[in-house]
Design a protein that fits this description.
The protein has helices at 7-19, 25-34, and strands spanning 42-44, 47-51, 56-66, 69-79, 86-98, 102-114, 117-133, 140-151, 156-167, 170-180, 185-188, 201-204. The chain is mainly beta. A hairpin with a 2-residue loop joins strand 3 (56-66) and strand 4.
Length: 242
């Protein structure tokens, strides 16, 4: 019989596979730089009020899109709209769709535009939420925190302030997680001597398995029926007439 792996070794193996502590930032950033989005920023809204003197704009029921990014909210305020660098503030039912089937949800978000490109989104809420569904395996990664920062160039989301992250059947809790949505890898850690509530906690829940129950047999060796009663014996052969 094959020997089972020690529980501690299994936990370490699962945690190591989940954490993926090998650095992928450089390669991801290089790929992003070579494939930058140059599409214009499109805005649609139910209504808009523009203050050209102060260079501010307010929107209601607004949708902002650029390449793979789509931001939707009840209201938005923008400053510096006629410049290359703009800051948007979104309020109310904020939803941000990003690359690789990722999405962010919160009550408020601040989106920074640099050189006419959406560069960063910072969402806050009670809590702010993140989700990504793998296109090949259909495994869902979910997370929430007090604040989530999405860096478009690096393709990462940083969860801080009571952060929680789940990948498949593995749950992680800690102060800060950095998740790469392109490589599906997460980095987490705490400083030496950090208090217990700042350490990384991982819980791996085993998948439930189903067992097949064999049908019971009666005391006489006959198989029982579905209701538990023994199957009837075949009728006896009648005696021959002399």
């Amino acid at each position: 019989m094959a020997r089972s792996r020690p529980k501690s070794s299994l936990l370490l193996a699962c945690a190591g596979a989940l954490l993926g502590l090998a650095s992928t930032h450089g390669t991801s950033a290089a790929a992003a730089d070579s494939d930058k989005c140059n599409d214009p920023i499109d805005v649609s809204a139910a209504s808009v009020v523009g203050d050209y003197k102060n260079n501010t704009t307010q929107w209601n029921n607004v949708v902002v899109t650029q390449c793979a990014i789509r931001v939707e909210a009840r209201t938005a305020r923008a400053t510096g709209l006629n410049t290359d660098n703009t800051r948007w503030t979104f309020d109310g039912d904020v939803r941000i769709n990003v690359e690789k089937r990722g999405s962010l949800r919160s009550s408020q978000a601040i989106v920074d535009v640099r050189n006419n490109q959406i560069a960063k989104a910072t969402i806050t809420g009670s809590p702010a939420e993140f989700e990504q569904r793998n296109a090949d395996t259909d495994v869902v990664t979910r997370g929430h925190a007090g604040e989530i920062v999405y860096e478009v160039g690096a393709g990462t989301v940083k969860l801080t302030d009571d952060a929680w992250l789940r990948y498949g059947t593995t749950d992680m809790k800690g102060s800060t997680f950095v998740y790469n949505i392109r490589d599906e890898k997460v980095q987490a850690g705490s400083q030496p001597g950090a208090p217990n509530n700042e350490r990384v906690h991982i819980r791996i829940t085993p998948k439930k398995t189903t067992t097949t129950v064999e049908p019971e047999k009666g005391s006489s060796g006959n198989s029982t029926t579905g209701g538990g009663a023994p199957a009837p014996n075949p009728p006896a052969t009648p005696p021959r007439t002399p």
